[in-house]
Amino acid sequence: MKAVKVMFWFMMAIMLPLATIHAQDQKGKKVTKKLISDVVGKWELKETVDLQKKGAIRKDTLGFDWIEFSEDGKYSLGSAGQNGTVEAIDSGSYRVNEQGGLLYLDSSSDNGQVSQVPSEWTIAVKEAEMKISSRASVHGKRFEYRYHRVKEGLNKK
Known about the structure:
Layout: H1 2-28, H2 35-39, E1 41-50, E2 56-58, E3 66-69, E4 74-80, E5 86-97, E6 102-107, E7 119-126, E8 129-134, H3 138-141, E9 143-152
Antiparallel strand pairs: 1-2, 1-3, 1-9, 3-4, 4-5, 5-6, 6-7, 7-8, 8-9
Protein name: Lipocalin-like domain-containing protein
Keywords: Signal
Signal peptide: 1-23
């Protein structure tokens, strides 16, 4: 019995300092912010860049003047219509691949008809700036849409 007690206290003497060191290491680690939490909010198009023409800015926007991501995984996008009206062009659900920096937009515009494959975009968000580029085709990869945040998500202050 005495040997068991000695062994117990010996193990405690070794384990306690190791546990304290491990806890201190965990405190110093930065918590990585999730990309999906940065996406939520309303974004307005700042510029469309033609990457093949050394960053030439294009005037046409393909109707992507604004895009809004909600916390429940829904999105809507549209254009600034005539006389300052806002026109929704598309809506549906979205998901983000954190590791790959990918955004998937699953349009609900087919109204239950033939299901479409979600469109795939590369995405990068830094503070109030977002850049997206289509991965669908060579032509789509050529353009980068740069947005600025105009409305924070619900969980942002």
